[in-house]
Amino acid sequence: MNLNFGSKFHVLVNLLSSMPNLEYLKLIATLPMAANGFQWQTLISEHLPMLQNFCFLIQYKACSNRSIEDQVTALVNSFNNNFWLQEHHWCVRCDWQEVQADNIYLYTLPYMSNHFYEGAPNIHLQSQITCVLHHSYNRVRSLNYAHFPNEQQTTSLPICFYNLHSLVLTLPTNDQFEIAIPSLHKLQYLELYIEKDETNDHLLTLLNTAPHLHRLVVWKWPSSTSLGLIEYITNSSIRELDLCGFSSTDSPQYFDRNRCQILSRLTLAQQCETLIIRVETRENILELLSSMKTLRLLVVKCADDPFNGPSECLSTPDK
User: Are strands 297-302 and 91-97 parallel, antiparallel or unpaired?
Assistant: First the structure.
């Protein structure tokens, strides 16, 4: 059974107690801190004797009158016993972040979902774990990875994603990136938020050698006069290019004649089949069409269009 739950733990107990033949449970829930491993052990032992496969992702709200480290330690210890580890071989990991100190995320390993949970856009997590399992995140296909240098650095047990198909990435990255994402060999969709133009040889090598990368979306980059890091991306498998992004001041990026010329000379443009872009004038459209020989679809918004409304993002094809 797949279950999304967001009420009191006793309501969940009453629900599951009526299913004594349940063999499989995949749970995503928000629960109080009292719903710990001992409570789950009692529920399973007394009411779910047939349960063989149990995986979960549970979000807790930390109590304000105790340190979050003490609460996490007590929570993880309640899953660190014979019932969980020897009888059922159910391993759990608990993560929390300094910037969201009231949120605690507890989940079974291997990680059960295709998308790494939204509560962790930054892989720098404080963590505790009941046992170490290799390749625990091989099911994850989609990830939002952001690193903001002003945040306090924290330590964590390593998390590695080997099978990403979709990646939302904020640049610049940090040293943890090479550990968290050692390969992009299955990546198909990449979305970039470039806070600062810095060339990273390791990252560029990963991006330019990702053999299945088909779509590149750049939602933000600092310069309003150049393309910056985009000029160094030469991956030959990219066919869809979305440059309907914003500057560091959150102003829409409109391409003038100079930037259209720079773009048209790039390897990306010469192989591009779908382009989504904002331009200054309708003449810029003709320039792009004449120079991008492989283009099959052009989605464009002109700054000089008299019917322009608010500067919302253009509609784009599905991923």
Answer: unpaired
Sequence-distant (≥ 6) Cβ neighbours of residue 6 within 8 angstroms? 29, 30
Which CA distances in Å does 85 have to 82, 109, 133?
5, 12, 12
Q: What is the per-residue DSSP string for 169-235?
A: EEES--THHHHH----TT--EEEEEESS----HHHHHHHHT-TT--EEEEEE-S-SSS-GGGGG---
pLDDT of 256-282, one tens digit each? 999 999 999 999 999 999 999 999 999
- The answer to whether 23 touches 52, Cβ cutoff 8 Å, is yes
Q: What is the pLDDT of residues 156-185, one digit of tens each?
A: 556 889 999 999 998 888 777 888 888 999
Instruction: Indicate the pairing of strand 100-109 with strand 53-61.
Output: antiparallel
- Partners of 29 in beta bridges: 5, 58
Question: Encoding tokens for residue 40?
Answer: 């789950």
Full-model pTM? 0.85
Mean pLDDT score of the chain: 87
Distance CA 144, CA 119 (A): 10
CA distance 94 to 128: 5
- Give the Cα separation of 168 and 291 in Å (integer): 30
